[in-house]
Design goal:
Elements: H1 9-24, E1 34-39, E2 44-47, E3 63-66, E4 71-73, H2 82-91, E5 97-101, H3 104-111, H4 122-127, E6 134-135, H5 143-153, E7 159-162, E8 166-171, H6 174-196, H7 206-218
Parallel strand pairs: 6-7
Antiparallel strand pairs: 1-2, 1-5, 2-3, 3-4, 5-8, 7-8
Helix pairs in contact: 2-5, 3-6
Bound molecules: zinc ion.
Zinc ion binds next to loops.
């Protein structure tokens, strides 16, 4: 059983700084959105507090939970979406960060209840894993929403949309989850602009999508 002795202040600080990064990047406004990371070594989840100014949060405001939902350390009311974050860590053991944002172009598609295809752009094919599916509408902060997000994400996608609400992006680490968040929003804007012309895009073949995903896993970046 993880205990408060396992809590790492540097991970509380990572989540605090990531909240500032999210608000400063324009991926959400005011106090909306939420961010967590999961320490796979100890099985602890670190999550932003509910409804606080991201520039005023201090590291000690980041509550810590085990993956069954028990509070291990913290004095704040946590993000209302803590069940969603925990659900993602339980469903996808390879991930360690989860970022929930309200970005404009992604939310245009989420409000239309539409998926965003990844075969319209190379970076989408490389970073998003699978079609970005739009989850069924559920009220914020409910177990139903948490289940809908896990279902929409499936086994391969790194992002999904919350209908009439926003996006959820996951990654092997915080930088990875932010990369997915920014690629998703960029691709959503490209898709919106294509649709605004009344035309459509030329899809990248399944074979080339698979080749790029393999390339990213094995050959892209430094050793
Ligand atoms: Zn939200």
């Amino acid at each position: 059983m993880p205990s408060s002795k396992d809590v790492k202040p540097d991970l509380q600080e990572l989540v605090r700084l990531s909240g500032v990064r999210m608000i400063d990047s324009g991926l959400t406004v005011a106090t909306w959105g939420n961010i967590s990371c999961c320490d796979r070594e100890t099985g602890l989840m670190y999550i932003t507090p509910s409804g606080m100014n991201y520039h005023e949060i201090v590291y000690d405001d980041i509550n810590v939970y085990d993956l069954k939902g028990n509070l291990v350390q913290g004095h704040r009311r946590p993000s209302i979406e803590h069940d969603m974050h925990r659900g993602m860590y339980n469903a996808r053991p390879e991930i360690s960060a989860c970022v929930h944002t309200h970005p404009i172009f992604s939310t245009v598609f989420s409000s239309m209840g539409e998926n965003i295809p990844i075969n319209l752009h190379d970076e989408a094919a490389q970073a998003l894993g699978d079609t970005v599916r739009c989850a069924d509408y559920c009220l914020p902060g409910t177990i139903d929403l948490a289940s809908a997000v896990v279902r929409a994400m499936g086994e391969k996608a790194n992002a999904c949309l919350l209908r009439n609400h926003g996006a959820v992006c996951i990654g092997e680490d915080m930088d990875g989850a932010f990369k997915v968040s920014t690629v998703l929003e960029m691709v959503a804007e490209i898709y919106w602009r294509i649709r605004a012309t009344g035309s459509t895009y030329i899809p990248i073949s399944d074979e080339n999508v698979a080749a790029m995903q393999m390339f990213v896993k094995t050959k892209y970046g430094q050793y």
